[in-house]
Amino acid sequence: MTPRAKAVVDKSMPLLSAVGLFVVWELACRLFAVPEYLLPTPSASFLAAWTYRDAIWMHALQTLLTTLGGFALAVAFGVLLGALVGSSRAVYRAANPLLIGFNSVPKVAVVPILVMWFGIGTVPAVLTAFLISFFPIVVNVATGLATLEPELRDVLRSLGATRTDILLKVGFPRALPFFFASLKVAVTLAFVGSVMSETVASNLGVGYLMMSASSRFNMPLVFAGLLVIAAMGIAMYGAFSVIEHRSTRWAHRGGESL
Amino acid sequence: MTAAFVDLDRVTLRYGAGDTLALSETTMKIAKGEFIAVVGPSGCGKSSLLKLVSGLMRPSTGTVIVNGQEVTGPLKIVGMAFQNPTLLPWRTTLDNVMLPLEIVEPHRRRLRGARAEYEERARAMLASVGLAGFEGKFPWQLSGGMQQRASLCRALIHEPDLLMLDEPFGALDAFTREELWAILQDLWTRRPFTVILVTHDLREAAYLADTIYVMSKRPGRIVHVRRNELPRPRTLETTFTRDFTDLVHELRNHISAVRAAQDTIPEDAR
To answer: Given this model, what pLDDT does residue B2 score?
Structure first.
């Protein structure tokens, strides 16, 4: 294969794998005559997505905004807490068990509580997205700050650098690749949170759309909802991957980003 | 004799719960502008010595006096370089060298207004170690020897009175190492500053230092002090002279004696 052809294949790999999955799925459904109320074919799902495009557009926009709202909160809170945990041993000792405990609680169990406090709708969805996605940001920012080379710290301290100096000149730039890596994970988690909350307690959003579609046995529409969420997740992940690559080029020398 | 610039008086350093003795009763007097080397087997507390002098650690007993003042916290007049060049990968070579200027007063205050002037100084410094033309490169685009030169520039850009070197050339190949000895000697001749070099390369110590301290390990103790009167500037030719090899042999014998003495200790303890 010529290098050029190799490059083309390399570029089209993601598309090929997606198309391949749909082809296998379609064939399996037809070959084994799987009834539509169990597993609709991808073609039926895409058709449903087109048929209900107006409704899907409205609900998808709601889900996207809720997710990004919760995610923005997670970034702000996560960076702040991560900076505290990563730069102070005392805060680390104090906060770590609480954080792990909190992260272990299934967020689906928290949604009813949020509904009791804030009613159904957008607010619990935003908060669930926030709660589920801040943890990886905290951990990564803290790790980036805490793994500063001791020699480098000595160099700076022997110049008379204050804690703030060290944090600003070295800590934060160094933690940046960790931070961006966590954003990619966090934004996909945020989708999980918002959709989960919408399924349980909302009358808007893709989660609600899927819930109501399944109660009417409209499985193609349920799967259309799933595909839309997956597409939004991939788009957001890709967007943050590009930002990551642009802003921390030094950390990705000689390689593609994941 | 004038007062020493760095004066360690019976300094002892214990680690942790007071069991491990890293340094024991160490006394050193280093004159201003003197280049000293500390040699010894690994794990003999050489690095602890640097941390004590620069104020990053406090002695358990004894006093450390630098420039007439007892050291009670990190000094602000020190430049440091380690075996690992520890350059910041997101900064260009030039910006790495200028890092101390962003921290040390009075440069910190002046930097914004006189950036061009300071940049010129950094460029000149890089040129003097043979890195002209590499200012805009990132550290990971430089070879190990080049990174170490940049690290030396960073340690000296703010014109510190005291330079601490912790096996700075330990990870380099022999040829690059000898090249950097000459560069370091040049820098030091041009603007004498006090240097404490920690190394286990005896030829390095003999090439660079005015005074060589031999240390034993566990506990670290100075067992021998040797003035090095070889004429300066020393060159690669110097390292082939009789005086030089004799000096290295002498040091080598002291190290062997130290190591032999230690090897018998476990048997005594049995």
So the answer is: 58
Q: Do B56 and A160 touch (CB under 8 A)?
A: no
Average the pLDDT over B140-153 and give the result: 89
Full set of structural domains in chain B with CATH: 1-74+163-168+196-270 (3.40.50.300), 78-160 (3.40.50.300)
* Residue A232 structural domain: 40-252
CB pairs below 8 Å between A and B: how many? Answer: 61
When the pLDDT of each residue in chain A is averaged and rounded to a whole number, the result is: 90
CB-based contact, B184 to chain A, within 8 Å: no
User: What is chain A written as a DSSP string?
Assistant: --HHHHHHHHHHHHHHHHHHHHHHHHHHHHHTT--TTT---HHHHHHHHHHTHHHHHHHHHHHHHHHHHHHHHHHHHHHHHHHHHHH-HHHHHHHHHHHHHHHHS-GGGTHHHHHHHH-SSHHHHHHHHHHHHHHHHHHHHHHHHHT--HHHHHHHHTTT--HHHHIIIIIHHHHHHHHHHHHHHHHHHHHHHHHHHHHHS-SSSHHHHHHHHHHTT-HHHHHHHHHHHHHHHHHHHHHHHHHHHHHTGGGGTTS---
Q: Which of A77, A236, A136, A80 is nearest to A244 (CA)?
A: A236
- How far CA B16 is from CA of A190, B21, B60, B218, B220, in Å, comes to 45, 9, 11, 15, 16
Residues 137 through 156 of chain B touching chain A, CB cutoff 8 Å: 138, 140, 154-155
Contact list in B for residue A169 (CB cut-off 8 A) is: 99, 102-103
What would the pLDDT profile of A80-121 be if each residue is shown by its tens digit? Answer: 999 999 888 899 899 889 999 998 999 989 999 999 999 988
Residue A76 belongs to a domain: yes
CA A125 – CA B122 distance, rounded (Å): 54
Residue A31 within a domain: no
A71 vs A82, A151, A167, CA distance in Å?
15, 36, 25
Please report the pLDDT score of residue A146 as a whole number.
Answer: 86
Between positions 176 and 195 of A, the ones with CB within 8 A of B are 176
Neighbours of A190 (CB within 10 A): 30
In angstroms, the separation between the Cα of residue B249 and the nearest Cα of chain A is: 32
Domain count, chain A: 1
Q: What is the pLDDT of residues A226-254, one digit of tens each?
A: 999 999 999 999 999 888 888 877 777 65
> Average pLDDT, stretch A176-185?
90
Provide the ipTM: 0.75
- B67-94 mean pLDDT: 86
Q: Is residue A7 part of a domain?
A: no
Chain B residue at shortest CA distance from A163: B103
Q: Which helix (H) or strand (E) holds B28?
A: strand B20-30
Which CATH number is A121's domain given? 1.10.3720.10
Within a domain: A84: yes
